[in-house]
Amino acid sequence: MTVETDVVIVGAGIAGLVVALEAVTAGARATVVESDDQIGGMLRRGRIAGVDIDLGAESFAKRTDAVPRLIADFALPLEVVAPRSGPAHLVSQHGVGLPGARWSRLPLPRRTVIGIPADPLAPDVVAIVGDRAAERAAAEVLDAPVDPTASLADVVEERLGEGLLRDLVDPLCRSIYSQPAAAVPLPRLHPKMWEAFERTGSLLAAAAEVAPNAPGGTAVGGIAGGMWRLADAVARVAAERGAVIRTGTAVGRVDPASGPGVAVTLADGETIRADHVVIATGPRGAANLLGRDSRAIDAGATAPIQPAVRLLTAAVTSDDLSAEPVGSGVIVAPGTCTAAKALTHIDAKWAWAREALPEGTHLVRLSARADDTAGLDSAAAVAREISHLTGTRVDRGDIGEVITTRWRDAVVPAESDSWTATVMDAAARGIHVTGAVAAGTGLASVIPHARALAHELFAVPSVRKES
User: So what EC number does this one have (predicted)?
Assistant: First the structure.
């Protein structure tokens, strides 16, 4: 059986859903096919302790206005909210810490952008990186070349020094973008910061201009009730306007049609013919559909992309956690001997979660290390890790329900010329790529890219550039 439509969108994560919404709003016919039985992709809903929560992304960076603008443009019934707690903490083998301690646990600096400080000599920066590294950063090398293709690590090390890179910038880059600072350039990570850097010629001046002048956490926002509600609302409006959204539907291949357009063959043998196909999957899925080994995305890779994200969300009964000892959570620096690379105290971070939970119950999320296979494999291990990272006493008996979520195609590798050429060649044949693999990590990048692609394909009137 062959079905005809204007566009087939492979993947019902937020990028694919946004393309579908823009397409049907412009009068096009759109069909979304999703192999999973749920929509949302990384905006996935779960339920624990009687509360609907995020099992994927639980916040968005405010470096662009992409999320609130999408909500406003389509009158989505959602409320953007700010974190309610104090700054997150950084656990590291460096820093002032406590005498004899295995690591330090210190609040993240008040004013930084991906760890680049507005003031390197601020006490909260010095506490983490030390006097020598702070003084080196303050003596920024201003005459170094401005290379947009250089990695964030190269730029920061050359201008601000290795200490700041190691102790602050790289840990935050790994936490926020799931990539080391050596793997990605600043323009891709933070366009607004790059624009300020180009204009001022100084990383410190750019950070002073861009960094929020407020306690940690204000650089991100959330949705009341959870980020999963954003995908749910976009899908609902898209369907109301005529989009067909099919879950549990795997795609076998994407080929040029015998006539004009592109043919999408589903795993059950059904064919959908369309003028355009938009691939909005993870990197492995995108590479496979474009007929490339997943290593094509990263020319320097020696093996296919591996599953790299495992999250454990636990309901915890603990009086000590009620004091919110680490604010919204903990980021763990590379090289620190812990089983988790991050911890989020969900109800400390979001008021809606605190209000929904029973008194004395907390929700804590741990992000396992990519190479961890057994470090967080029991309730006792989860309790031990929460105790280590927060400095509180949490016992095995305090751990209630635990939900483990594995993202097998989530981490986006660095760009490569080979992958860029593959994407450009596919676009010439009516096959387009969006999502994090094309736009970079984070809703602040993914949503504008998806909207711009839809505007290009369906002649949607141009809109002002996200800022």
Answer: 1.3.3.15, 1.3.3.4
Say which amino acid occupies 428: A
Place of tokens 């937020």: 14
Q: Where are the domains of the chain?
A: 2-48+225-303+412-458, 83-108+216-222+308-407, 109-212
CA distance 1 to 372: 45
CA distance 339 to 376: 7
CATH assignment of 2-48+225-303+412-458, among 3.50.50.60, 3.50.30.60, 3.60.15.10, 3.40.640.10:
3.50.50.60
Q: How far is CA 291 from the centre of its chain?
A: 26
In this structure, are residues 449 and 15 in contact, taking their beta carbons and an 8 Å threshold? yes
What kind of fold does domain 83-108+216-222+308-407 have according to CATH?
D-Amino Acid Oxidase; Chain A, domain 2 (3.30.9)
Task: Read off the pLDDT of residues 38-48 as tens digits, 9 standing for 90 and up.
Answer: 999 999 999 99
Would you identify the CATH topology of the domain 109-212?
protoporphyrinogen ix oxidase, domain 3 (1.10.3110)
pLDDT digits (tens, 9 = 90+) for 353-404: 999 999 999 999 999 876 555 578 889 999 999 999 999 999 999 999 999 9
Query: Assign residue 385 a region: left if phi > 0, alpha if psi is -120 to 50, beta otherwise?
Result: alpha
Q: Is the pTM of this model over 0.85?
A: yes
